[in-house]
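Figure 3 (text version): structure tokens given as input.
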């Protein structure tokens, strides 16, 4: 059994301990995980910052090249730093359907960049057979359950950002940075199911 595999699921003190998932597995044959680039420590947030996560098992996945760190907003052509943006008139679902738009605080419409980045994120997931994503909550791109309401007053509303909404439409499980343990349990369960089906 590889040290990586043992650390991830086979030690009782691991937050994702799962005794049924302790069989040896070829890491390189497993699907990858999508992670918001800012959560991997990349300085791509609108203010030039990042939100690195200190999580041992996630760091192991990163070091074993099992994680794709991706920022939909920079992929869509937006720079760093950039003006903060929020969704007006709905959430990411409505943006994808053309019923809402994303604007900066000064009023610039950046909807196209956000939708382009969301589509690129989906393409990455399809290419890498990714089934689980850990994305930054509250983001107009990556928020899975909460986003800012478009008033630029730091007020929140329920709903998903554009990238999270598009990934969910295609059956990808979306978690946030406060759900890493849950995301990794789902990731390994789906990976094991895939391995069994391929035998």
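Below: residues designed for each position.
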């Amino acid at each position: 059994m590889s040290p990586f595999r043992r650390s991830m699921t086979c030690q009782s003190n691991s937050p994702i301990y799962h005794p049924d998932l302790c069989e040896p597995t070829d890491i390189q044959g497993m699907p990858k995980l999508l992670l918001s680039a800012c959560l991997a420590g990349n300085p791509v947030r609108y203010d030039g910052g990042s939100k690195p996560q200190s999580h041992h098992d996630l760091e192991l996945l990163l070091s074993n090249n099992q994680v794709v760190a991706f920022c939909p907003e920079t992929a869509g052509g937006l720079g760093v730093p950039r003006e903060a943006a929020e969704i007006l008139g709905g959430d990411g679902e409505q943006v994808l359907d053309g019923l809402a738009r994303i604007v900066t605080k000064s009023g610039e419409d950046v909807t196209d960049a956000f939708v382009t980045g969301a589509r690129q994120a989906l393409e990455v997931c399809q290419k890498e057979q990714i089934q689980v994503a850990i994305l930054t909550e509250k983001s107009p791109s990556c928020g899975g359950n909460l986003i800012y309401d478009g008033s630029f007053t730091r007020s929140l509303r329920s709903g998903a950002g554009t990238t999270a909404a598009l990934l969910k439409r295609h059956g990808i499980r979306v978690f946030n940075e406060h759900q890493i343990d849950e995301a990794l349990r789902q990731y390994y369960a789906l990976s094991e199911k895939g391995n069994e089906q391929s035998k």
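Confidence is low (pLDDT under 50) at residues 1-9, 15-25.
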